[in-house]
């Protein structure tokens, strides 16, 4: 694919390269040069970064389209990441003549990186861009799990055109449907009506309140580990830590918690797309939000460099296996523990005639707490939700 059709190289003159130290992250990045890089081999790189300068479907956040280069200006001054020395910066997807043109470009670029098995970091832009990112997996014919970090579910008005506050409904209704699971991390209850919560339950999706998440951050790792796409709305970070957004909120995650979630995304072998959205440079007067976003990307890369390649999709022969049986119950729950990372998975049975479709989803990331729950006689909620989707 000729990527130069869709991408504009990063303008290095605007990134203040003189501020990059000898061991800065910027020094370890290969910057795409457009058509003259026609023989570029994407598979040679461990991770790729693109910016998407699209904001036309943002809601009350005009100005977020200028965020990508703002984040880069802070990101490349940070120190290099151990174990991640082959980073490709592909530049920006600029707004097309119509927003649909931008979406098409995003689909094409994300799908091409997916075909080459190169994890993608996206610097947005408004969060409706999650929809064309999801559509890229349709081109790969791959069932996916989507996780959003967001104070709302972004279901919105089903009848309205696609925008940053209804993109999830567009994903759910999209046909053919390649969404296996959706999880929201950090919703704030006063923004979510009971009908939306009921919909999450009917679809066997996951939703975790902000207060619960902040008290159970280690449990969040298993949720993030199950995702192919993580879409982070920076509105989920409280105003004091991320003021660069026209929709800022008094409550939300702290900056260090956002970085912790970002690292969880990086260490997940399954995670192939990590996106940051809704940073509004016009509201970010002293660059606090762009600086935090750059650190979140850094932590994602740090996690990427620490991946253990222990996602047991092909074989579980080398894992510790624990069988938990239940009295007066037909179910046997099988747990696996990696000797490399000490992370846990549980096996959910599925119809054999659907093996090809669901092979990536019947081993569900979980925690030691889930194993303890099973040992106490209760089947974990994560197991039931996955079982209901598989059958």
Reconstruct the topology from this structure.
Layout: E1 29-31, E2 47-52, H1 67-75, E3 87-93, H2 99-115, E4 120-123, H3 130-139, E5 144-149, H4 167-173, E6 179-187, H5 194-202, E7 206-209, H6 210-215, H7 217-225, E8 229-233, H8 255-267, E9 273-277, H9 288-305, E10 320-325, E11 332-337, E12 344-347, H10 355-358, E13 363-366, H11 368-375, H12 381-390
Parallel strand pairs: 1-3, 2-3, 2-4, 4-9, 5-6, 5-8, 6-7, 8-9
Antiparallel strand pairs: 10-11, 11-12, 12-13
General description of the model:
There is one protein chain. With 391 residues, the chain is α/β, with parallel strands linked by helices. It has 2 domains: 3-305, Arginase, Chain A, CATH 3.40.800.10; 320-390, no CATH class. It has helices at 67-75, 99-115, 130-139, 167-173, 194-202, 210-215, 217-225, 255-267, 288-305, 355-358, 368-375, 381-390; strands spanning 29-31, 47-52, 87-93, 120-123, 144-149, 179-187, 206-209, 229-233, 273-277, 320-325, 332-337, 344-347, 363-366. The strands form 2 sheets. It has a 9-stranded parallel beta sheet with strand order 1-3-2-4-9-8-5-6-7, with helices on both faces. A 4-stranded antiparallel beta sheet has the order 10-11-12-13. Helix 1 (67-75) links the parallel strand 2 (47-52) and strand 3 (87-93).
Summarize the structure.
The protein is an alpha/beta fold and 391 residues long. Helices cover 31% and strands 18% of the residues.
